[in-house]
Amino acid sequence: MVRFTCGVVLLGLLLTSDLGATSVAGVSMDSFGTTGDGQAVTRFTLDGPGGVRARVITYGATLTELWLPDRQGTLGDVVLGFDSLAEYEAKSPYFGCTTGRVANRIGGARFTLDGVEYPLAANDGANTLHGGRRGLDKQVWQGAPVVHEAGPAVRLTLVSPDGDEGFPGNLDLAVTYILTRDGELRLEYQATTDKATPVNLTNHSYFNLAGAGTVHGHILTLHASRYTEPDANLIPTGRLLPVAGTPLDFTRPASVGGRMGQVSIGGYDHNYVIDRADTGLVLTADLYEPASGRAMEVLTTEPGVQFYSGNFLSGLAGKAGAVYVRHAGLCLETQHYPDAVHRPEFPSIILRPGQTYRQVTVHRFSTR
Ligand code: GLA
Fold it and tell me: What predicted TM-score, i.e. pTM, was given to this entire model?
């Protein structure tokens, strides 16, 4: 059932800075405009078999488009986003971006590490969300196409300086998007630091496999029999509770919309504890949209996944005239648990000099 796709080797890196000056098969580049503060943003297009296409911009290392065939072979864009860079800068609810340095929440907007307290920006009530006010999602990364044995790929890199958003250490980051010939979008994360620091990266794509409407009719399976109990501000209490007997139970396939009304916050925004025997790549989620027949499996090396059902969307104008209503897309944010810096009993997110942070998340596409 679980097909492991480890062992992919990076064959080489093409150094390129001039738009269009490269020729990696299946990868093309163009401009996606210039940020308000004058930084040029490049867009990479990865083309796979059957018209499958992923587009990634250097602003926030963001997935902007993902085109997949339906049962009849008709292509549809299955991620939410915007047509212009200005909209990503002005109003994005983290569409498609790489979030960090610490994805999700840090309670009280501060943490103590090795006896030193680090104050952070409080950008979600009294807490820190997705790395602070100007997290990795709002920075312009460097991008280069890479020759990868699995298929067309782009590698995005960024040096987040010591003190960036209050976090210690110069953090060297790399995120590689690979569109494999087997019909997968594979995300590989890597980071090193020169001072101990927390790191928890994720991709914040909002999926809608129908390409329009809400995700209520999507059928979801989550291989997670527990979740981290949240307090009223979505900070974990420390308890891991069973999903059995609650509307959070997706251990067997269930519609996303069917029990939403029974969830106190009117939708899902919960960190699920992935059922796993070891730290390898494991099947975590299966999302299926019956009308189009599109399906997506998610495999990850992470211990958790935030299932967020787009509860805060409320009529946001998006790509190609789309209007994103509440629950127009859902996120499956593979991650370490929220507020791990305050929970020694949770898997640690502390990266120390000499160590390399590595995580892999695979999105495997098919039709049924
Ligand atoms: C995450 C959080 C949500 C929300 C979204 C962005 O999924 O858990 O509460 O903040 O990001 O809107």
Answer: 0.94
Residues spanned by the domain of 215: 4-367
Domain holding 31: CATH number? Answer: 2.70.98.10
Between the alpha carbon of residue 110 and those of residues 48, 87, 148, the distances in Å are 43, 30, 39
132: closest CA among 140, 123, 145?
Answer: 123
Quickly count: other Cβ atoms within 10 Å of residue 343's Cβ: 18
Nearest CA to ligand 1 atom 10: 129
**Kind of pairing, strands 254-255 and 219-222?**
antiparallel
- Residue length, the chain? 368
pLDDT in tens, 5-30: 333 334 444 444 444 445 789 999 99
Average pLDDT on 255-284 reads: 96
Cβ–Cβ under 8 Å, residues 149 and 8:
yes
Catalytic residue ranges: 204, 333
The total of structural domains in the chain comes to 1
Residues 6+ apart with CB under 8 A from 269: 230, 234, 306, 307, 308, 309, 311
- Tell me which residues have their CB closer than 6 angstroms to ligand 1: 93-94, 104, 129, 234, 269, 306, 308, 312, 331, 333
